[in-house]
């Protein structure tokens, strides 16, 4: 199966284009090293939770089965904590990276708070190849576990004596509000008919829902490196654009991805009539395939239609648009990064992570 | 209707007993003055929220109708922010009180975060004489508005340059986790049969669900006054015990209260078969009335039974127990307070507030 990578943009983002060498080994190594330092702190933080919340959290992170037996992980990629640490290292060296571990854990806790709550609201039944927490423990326990993870994240920062911790907490809390706005926009978009959803608002929703926290992760890392306000904002912009690229590719995978890799049934997003980015771009294309897709989206899901629906998105240009837009966002991300970190070797880790998440194969 | 006040305990809590003079005018005055300084900051904080969350929050606080028209308030008693300010004043004088307004707003935001989420989980349809937010805006928007209020609370503290803000944020975040545990215990108790619920665990649940935040409010005020760790803990203990007294009286009101004052239908707690403190005490009494009550609680609610159910709780001693226990808790609260604040005149405001909430008439 071909990799779902963006087409090469006519942009200066040499490292971000798919022809750039690199098989993701560097990113995989960074993610592995991130888990090695983040997991012990993360688990120690979760251990402080009262029993019922701990049980749901450990299940959600893939460390426990629903009955409390040990499970073998699957706690996600740890992309956001890796970005915190990579940003700290890029701007402040190994010492800054070492000092930012607690902040990295806080960002990962916030990410997982949103997953727990979003799954309740969206009635999503599957996450990381397992039944979602609310399907196992009920809505109330999943909401409470999410609340507890958010509180835990901000407690970690409040207790962190690092001079940047208060600024990081303010930024992270602000980001949570933006994530909520993004999730609200998402649920409200999903309630509307396919003709009533514009591409600009779906892009804005994706920026709030996905870009904001990835940007915040990078900005928090910069804060922990003692970076200037200008550099913190540049890192935020880098993360936001890379996050949007990530979401675009994620949406492509949500339609054409391999269920054994995505952890979701094939074509789940189409079956749920989700107005993901490639779908909305296709609907807005004014092509005959767009009209066909709109008609399909007006009717409930029929298993027979799945391939036809995916084909309509593709023929209406949704797939190409998403891949080109992802490449464009990556180019902007690289540009923002170079404002704060002109030396390519210092930016390597961050670029490797950004490339990695936008190069995942379908 | 007689006031639902505790019987006089054989305890040193002279000020906390119902015979003590005072008609609540002092507390009402403190609450009014609290609203005057807290409301502008609270509204300014809510104005920073993105539109959809702001709309739900302003509705929940009673400042807007569902359609956005201005409403005339009903934002609750502001007990918790009043306790923050009263504790700061008691231990640090007027300057400490003035510096603690933002912390008072943060505590009030956390309280309202729990109300929004708890109403979703408990499917409560009415709050402060109005339909609850989830019944008006749906579950997702109520959950998101709650999330946003929690984040806003901790952002306010993270941005507060006061030297106590980080310690207060850590304490408040920790309290949120305890509130979640309390809410979990509550929902899990409600799912069990009346015979399977013990008095000790219902008291522990009430302490986590209600006492914890009232204690935290007092402790945060003490932190903002620069109090010693010992005094901060004493203030926490004062608030916890007073909070439990408050919950006991609130549960009495939930059975025998006047709907026009409680904002809930008459006997709502009995109709919902809620295992409130007087009910569990009655069930545990081993009296014939207890068996009668257990039988009633095993069957679904019948309008005709309402007076009979209330009478069974009373005959089984549930009402008397709750009032005596409330008086006992108030005595302990006063004792804890006197450890930190031996001078009666300094403790006046806190005592007036504690008395006020446990003296509300049925």
From TrEMBL, chains A, B:
Ranges where the record places region Disordered: 1-25
GO BP annotation list: isoprenoid biosynthetic process
Gene3D superfamilies documented for this protein: Farnesyl Diphosphate Synthase
Identification of the protein by name: Polyprenyl synthetase
Keywords: Magnesium, Metal-binding, Transferase
Gene Ontology molecular function: metal ion binding; prenyltransferase activity
Protein family per UniProt: Belongs to the FPP/GGPP synthase family.
Stretches with biased composition (Low complexity): 7-21
């Amino acid at each position: 199966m071909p990799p779902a990578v963006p087409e090469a943009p006519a942009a200066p983002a040499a490292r971000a284009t798919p022809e750039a060498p690199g098989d993701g080994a560097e990113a995989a190594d960074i993610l592995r090293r991130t888990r090695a330092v983040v997991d012990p702190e993360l688990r120690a933080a979760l251990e402080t939770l009262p029993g019922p919340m701990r049980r749901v959290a450990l299940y959600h992170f893939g460390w426990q089965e629903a009955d409390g037996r040990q499970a073998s992980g699957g706690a996600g990629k740890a992309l956001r904590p890796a970005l915190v640490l990579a940003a700290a290292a890029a701007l402040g060296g190994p010492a800054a990276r070492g000092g930012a571990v607690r902040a990295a854990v806080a960002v990962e806790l916030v990410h997982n708070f949103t997953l727990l709550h979003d799954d309740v609201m969206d009635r999503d039944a599957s996450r990381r190849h397992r039944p979602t927490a609310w399907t196992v423990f009920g809505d109330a326990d999943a909401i409470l576990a999410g609340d507890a993870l958010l509180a835990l994240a901000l407690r970690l920062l409040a207790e962190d004596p690092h001079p940047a911790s208060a600024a990081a907490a303010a930024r992270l809390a602000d980001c949570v509000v933006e994530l909520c706005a993004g999730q609200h926009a998402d649920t409200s978009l999903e309630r509307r008919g396919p003709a009533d959803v514009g591409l600009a608002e779906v892009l804005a929703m994706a920026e709030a829902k996905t870009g904001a926290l990835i940007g915040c992760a990078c900005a928090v890392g910069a804060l922990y490196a003692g970076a200037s306000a200008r550099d913190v904002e540049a890192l935020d912009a880098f993360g936001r654009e890379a996050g949007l690229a990530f979401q675009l590719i994620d949406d492509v995978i949500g339609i054409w991805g391999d269920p054994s890799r995505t952890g979701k049934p094939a074509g789940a997003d189409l079956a749920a009539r989700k107005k993901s980015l490639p779908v909305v771009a296709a609907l807005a294309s004014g092509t005959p395939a767009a009209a066909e897709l709109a008609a399909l989206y007006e009717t409930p899901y029929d298993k027979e239609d799945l391939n036809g629906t995916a084909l309509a998105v593709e023929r209406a240009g949704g797939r190409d648009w998403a891949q080109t837009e992802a490449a464009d966002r990556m180019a902007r991300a690289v540009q923002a990064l170079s404002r704060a970190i002109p030396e390519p070797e210092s930016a390597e880790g961050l670029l490797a992570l950004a490339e990695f998440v936008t190069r995942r194969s379908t």
